[in-house]
Design goal:
By secondary structure, the protein is mainly α. Helix content is about 75%, strand content about 0%. The chain is built from 30 helices and two strands.
């Protein structure tokens, strides 16, 4: 014993000299960094900015905040420090504020005496708010990126457990099973599994089990069922009999399926009330408030201007809605959702192409310019070039109801009289207040919404079609796998079994796959591996499905253990996938009511309500405009015959002081587009997790439906309510 102690003392000092103790968490292998850069490039942008700006100085955060931020950085695989996050956020805030301050000072020196301090003070206040928002957004970016990473990774948990279980049923080796899953899963969960190996390679942990257990701790709060499933998988290694080992592995898959179902059941009940609150507070109340703005602005003597409306309803309120919905998305449990990685699709270049935006812009630009026609008629150069009048009196069409009603109806800012000639444009004008301008203004939100709708449809049409075809193919392939497993279980070699399954699946979409494998085997003389995965003639080329690819790789791996093992593996995959589909169907049923209610509110009720409000706004302006004309005709002495003091009434509600309905309509239309963007993102996240393709496709679809309903209802409401107002006031003329 003494000799052993002497040897330890002798060599321990020498070994400690040679061991590098300067390891930090960022020192990971080159392969992991390469994999991360290739699979998750979107995360590196924030990293680069934070490293560039965050390296100028160091700040000391509280231990609690530093741990919280570091946990989010680790989950999002961001190789930066909490100090760099804080410094980058501070620099972002300061740069935005000083940019706004510089613009303020330049405007002051350039305009000189004509500098309107009240307007620019509002600008400076908005810049201050924007700078605080930028700080908040930058400082909380690790949390959002980590949540996005969590949603993507959690949608792949069930397939991850499936791959590990299927592999370990024929080969009880945890290291190989995790490696197999990491090779066949997609990012980001594949990134996590690979990092488990890199942490062992770089000496952070001594065994795969230790590294895996440490990784599972990060999911204890968000996905405990995933942790429990892997602990059962680990415990299967210590089972004395093969039967109990198989039962433990199968139990692990059942645990994660049951856990996901229970959490989504609870979430579907909890999310209903917050979504209703978002709709009422973020859609209904602001829209109704806009209907009162024309009268409110007149009562306040013109203190409320159109740009105040845009700031409030197109900047502040959408931000509050976004904040409220972000909390809803953060509470979504993991384990369920789409797990396709868009970047791996061969047609992904079409998704990131700028061509759809160019085509959409060419289509929508004429409608956008049409909405600006009222302002074009206030440009003296345009009027003089084409010898036009700044406005058109609709009474020239011979309709008594339209007498003294102008198409655009811009007013002199001082007197409130209509702009009728080019000379009237020399003084300040306000408006437009006319029904014609309001109707033309409908083209502005229509053109903006259709721009995104057309572009998004062109970007996603083929990708969505491919995804739907792949899902249908995978449903058929599940049954075909069971048949293939039965043939192998009968002792038929795999080379012959493919021909038998091709015959039994005649008329189905999977027939071509099995028939092509059979042709490659017998006519091209390929091996089974080459017949399926040959880069030129392999059957898998025409079937871009992870399920089919992974199933065939499991087949090749398990045939090394014998036909019986291969048969059991394929039949297990078939049975597990059927169970997974059953759980997914039940989950969609749970969420269907919540999602369908929100869809109808967003695409029908909100545009309908917004359209009616636009009609009311136009009617209010029409009534005040008509009363101004009547008062001008009858004069002060004629007011007694009407029954009330019309002059006092019109002094209270001066037409030139109200917010023009044109701007109210544009604000409502843009706000509706913003709400569809925000709420569609929420609905897709609830239903499918972080599914970028579905989000883009659904936004385009809902924008088209919502804006068409809004435009039609607004047009009808403007015409009908204005006509009713005109008929009601006809007796006063």
């Amino acid at each position: 014993m003494g000799k052993v102690d002497d040897l330890l003392k002798k060599y321990s000092w020498k070994l400690s000299k040679e061991i590098d103790t300067n390891y930090v968490s960022g020192d990971i292998s080159k392969e992991y960094l390469t994999f991360k850069e290739e699979m998750m490039p979107q995360l590196s942008k924030y990293e680069k900015l934070a490293k560039a700006f965050g390296s100028f100085m160091r700040v000391r955060l509280s231990e609690k905040d530093a741990k919280k931020i570091q946990a989010k950085l680790d989950m999002a695989h961001l190789d930066i420090t909490p100090s760099q996050v804080a410094v980058f956020s501070f620099f972002s805030m300061v740069s935005v504020f000083f940019t706004g301050l510089l613009i303020f000072l330049l405007a002051y020196f350039i305009q000189g005496v004509g500098f309107e301090f009240s307007k620019w003070l509002l600008f400076l206040f908005l810049v201050l708010i924007a700078s605080f928002f930028i700080f908040y957004y930058s400082y909380t970016s690790p949390s959002r990126l980590a949540n996005n990473f969590r949603l993507k990774a959690s949608s792949q948990m069930v397939p991850c457990v499936l791959y590990v279980v299927v592999y370990m049923k024929h080969t009880s080796n945890l290291e190989r099973a995790v490696a197999f899953a990491s090779q066949h899963l997609q990012a980001p969960l594949a990134l996590d599994l690979k990092k488990i190996f890199w942490d062992v390679e770089t000496g952070k942990y001594s065994t795969i089990k230790e590294s895996l257990d440490n990784y599972l701790k990060t999911w204890e709060k968000d996905a405990i069922e995933f942790v429990e499933a892997f602990h059962l998988i680990e415990s299967s290694l210590y089972e004395p009999s093969n039967t109990r080992r198989i039962q433990t592995l199968e139990k692990s898959l059942q645990v994660i399926l049951d856990g996901v179902y229970e959490k989504m059941l609870s979430y579907s009940r909890e999310v209903r009330s917050p979504l209703t609150n978002v709709y009422m507070l973020g859609v209904v109340l602001p829209t109704l408030g806009l209907a009162l703005l024309p009268l409110a602005s007149a009562l306040l003597g013109g203190l409320v201007r159109w740009y105040h409306v845009f700031i409030l309803f197109n900047v502040i309120v959408p931000f509050l809605v976004f904040y409220m919905t972000s909390n809803i998305m953060l509470k979504r449990p993991g384990g369920y959702g789409e797990n396709d990685l868009l970047e791996l699709n061969p047609k992904y270049p079409k998704y990131i192409s700028r061509k759809p935006y160019v085509i959409a812009a060419v289509i929508c630009l004429p409608f956008f310019l049409l909405s600006l026609v009222p302002f074009l008629f206030q440009w003296p150069f345009f009027l003089e070039t084409f010898n036009l009048s700044p406005d058109i009196n609709l009474g020239v069409f011979g309709i008594e109801l339209l007498q003294d009603i102008r198409l655009f109806d811009f007013k002199d800012a001082a007197t409130g009289t209509a702009v009728a000639s080019i000379n009237d444009l020399k003084s300040g004008v306000v408006g437009p207040f006319g029904i014609g301008a309001l109707l033309l203004g409908l083209f502005l939100p229509l053109s903006v919404a259709m721009f995104f709708a057309i572009a998004f449809r062109m970007k996603t049409k083929e990708l969505i079609k491919d995804r739907n075809n792949t899902k249908e193919l995978e449903m058929e392939f599940t049954n075909s796998l069971f048949q293939l497993g039965n043939r192998l279980g009968d002792g038929i070699p795999a080379e012959i079994a493919f021909a038998r399954v091709a015959e039994s699946t005649r008329g189905q979409r999977t027939e071509d796959f099995f028939r092509k494998v059979n042709l490659n085997l017998h006519q091209a003389g390929m091996s089974l591996d080459e017949a399926i995965f040959n880069p030129r003639r392999g059957a898998i080329i025409d079937y871009p499905s992870n399920l089919i690819s992974t199933s065939m790789k499991i087949l090749l791996e398990s045939t090394k253990k014998g036909l019986k093992v291969a048969a059991e593996s394929l039949m297990s995959i078939s049975e597990y996938i059927k169970n997974i589909h059953k759980v997914e169907s039940r989950l969609r049923d749970l969420l269907a009511e919540v999602i369908s209610d929100m869809k109808s509110n967003m695409t029908f009720l909100a545009p309908l309500l917004a359209g009616i409000v636009v009609g009311l706004s136009g009617m209010i302006a029409f009534i005040l405009n008509k009363l101004s004309g009547i008062f001008a005709q009858v004069g002060e002495s004629g007011t007694q015959s009407i029954g009330f003091d019309l002059g006092t009434f019109l002094q209270l509600f001066r037409i030139e002081q109200i917010i023009p309905p044109y701007y109210v309509q544009v604000a409502i239309g843009i706000y509706l587009i913003q709400i569809i963007f925000i709420l569609t993102n929420v609905l897709v996240t609830i239903d499918s997790g972080a599914d970028k393709l579905k989000r883009t496709s659904d936004i385009g679809k809902y924008l088209k439906i919502g804006i068409i309903i809004y435009t039609i209802v607004s047009f009808i409401a403007i015409v009908v309510l204005s006509a009713v107002a005109g008929l009601s006031l006809g007796g006063l003329a």
